[in-house]
Structures are given as structure tokens and as C-alpha cells.
Specification:
CATH class: Alpha Beta
Oligomer: single chain
Helix content: 25-40%
CATH architecture: 2-Layer Sandwich
Shape: elongated
EC number: 4.1.2.25, 5.1.99.8
CATH superfamily: GTP cyclohydrolase I, C-terminal domain/NADPH-dependent 7-cyano-7-deazaguanine reductase, N-terminal domain
Pfam families: FolB
Distance between the termini: 20 Å
Strand order of the largest sheet: 3-1-2-4-5
Structural class: alpha+beta
CATH topology: GTP Cyclohydrolase I, domain 2
Number of domains: 1
Number of helices: 4
Number of strands: 5
Radius of gyration: 16 Å
GO cellular component, one term: cytoplasm
Strand content: 35-45%
Protein name: Dihydroneopterin aldolase
GO molecular function, one term: isomerase activity
Length: about 120
């Protein structure tokens, strides 16, 4: 039987350089990221040991550090690079990222992107 459990961290606020317009490139902007990592949590559930789990504090720190040093024009490029980084750093089977850019368009509350990537 294939088990797919999800470790999730929602509404991570990060600051990063993102955008194509000159005023967007001039200062860091806020992104809000939801991250879901597919994994099998049975070993951690049985052992009650963080060594057998995906450490969500460490994952959150990785996302925050990635964003702090990132410099992308497109959300698509930011998302692809972040997903690849997290799949490289953590033993998840797959990842879903929802990335929101509040205030990007005056007529909306936010714009965003959702991607799903699986380990190859």
C-alpha cells in the first residue's frame, strides 16, 4: 500500500526581490508561501523522533533563507528554483507550492502561482 502523508506549512511571509518592473526590482517585496511536502510519516509516528520526520521548522528556515537571497523576475522561476531546492534538501516524495504576491495588481488582493513537483 502506498501511503501519502502531507507535512504542510501555510502562510510563510518572506521578503525577496521579485518582479520585472523597475520599481519592483528596487526593493524587496513580500511573498506569502504555502508549502506542502508529500512523505510517509509512519516511521516518525512510531519512533516519536525528529530524526525520522520532516522538520517543519527547518523547512520554514530554508524557505526564508532561499527567499532572502533570491533575485528573480518571475514567480514561475522563483517557484521552480524553490521546489528544486527543497526536494534536494529534504527527503519528500513531492512538493506543492502556492506563492502569493499581495498588491501586485491594484485591482486584486493578490496574484499567485501554484506548482506541484515530484521527485524524479
Amino acid at each position: 500500500m502506498n501511503t501519502q502523508d502531507i507535512i504542510y506549512i501555510h502562510a510563510i511571509k518572506v521578503r525577496t526581490v521579485i518582479g520585472i518592473l523597475p520599481h519592483e526590482r528596487a526593493m524587496k517585496q513580500t511573498l506569502i508561501i504555502d508549502c506542502e511536502l508529500g512523505t510517509d510519516t509512519r516511521a516518525a509516528g512510531a519512533s516519536d523522533d525528529i530524526a525520522d520526520a520532516l522538520n517543519y521548522a527547518a523547512i520554514c528556515d530554508s524557505i526564508t533563507a532561499f527567499a532572502a537571497s533570491a533575485n528573480y523576475q518571475l514567480l514561475e522561476a522563483f517557484a521552480e528554483a524553490l521546489a528544486a531546492t527543497l526536494l534536494e534538501q529534504y527527503p519528500a516524495e513531492n512538493i506543492r507550492l502556492d506563492i502569493q504576491k499581495p498588491g501586485a495588481l491594484e485591482a486584486t488582493r493578490e496574484v499567485g502561482l501554484r506548482i506541484y513537483r515530484a521527485r524524479k
